[in-house]
Amino acid sequence: MRQAVLAATVDLLASQGMAATTVAAVARAAGVHETSVYRRWKTRENLIFDALAHHSDHALPTPDTGDVRADLTALFTALARYLATPAGTALLHLGTVRGEDDLEEGRRSYWSTRLERAEALVRRGIDRGELATDTDPHLTVEAITGPLLARVLLTGEPLEETLVPRLVDLVLDGARAPRRQGRRQDRPDGS
């Protein structure tokens, strides 16, 4: 029953949008009783988060290529593509609603789990010596995720194919010019 309900939820989100994805519509599409859906998920929002979590787990596998740059690029490229789908749009809509008790727990749980998976990629890079030992995995992931979400949610700019590799390079390499040997770097205070 769970698989049928989750699949019906994602299908409805993709074909009809958020407003049409009601518990009654999902139950009809899945061939189950509406009370069964409410008994298991309690709210429409819980159902949608569970369906999107299940769906995105398959759409966003955690890569392990042996290279942190390649892993982060693969994961965030898949995320950018996912965000452009109807399911991704629904996820963003639910993920940005703050202060509604029905959504808060699902939103927090969903994003915490996904961010922890991305942070694991950074930790592997640290363990392999690709990144400095004092690298903050959470901040690194936020630094890549933030611009993606800003593009989609704030500016509506397209997520072109080169964006993710450029973001990963920027975050992993930094934007500071390399120090030249033999020259003293001036501090911002002029000393």
Automatic annotation (TrEMBL):
Name of the protein in its database record: TetR family transcriptional regulator
Keyword entries, A-Z: DNA-binding, Signal, Transcription, Transcription regulation
PANTHER family xrefs: HTH-TYPE TRANSCRIPTIONAL REGULATOR RUTR, TETR-FAMILY TRANSCRIPTIONAL REGULATOR
Signal peptide stretch: 1-19
GO molecular function: DNA-binding transcription factor activity; transcription cis-regulatory region binding
DNA-binding region listed in the record: 22-41
SUPFAM superfamilies: Homeodomain-like, Tetracyclin repressor-like, C-terminal domain
Xref: InterPro entries: Homeodomain-like_sf (IPR009057), HTH-type_TetR-like_transc_reg (IPR050109), HTH_TetR (IPR001647), Tet_transcr_reg_TetR-rel_C_sf (IPR036271), TetR_C (IPR011075)
Keyword Transcription: yes
Domain HTH tetR-type as annotated: residue spans: 1-59
Cited Gene3D superfamilies: Homeodomain-like (1.10.10.60), Tetracycline Repressor, domain 2 (1.10.357.10)
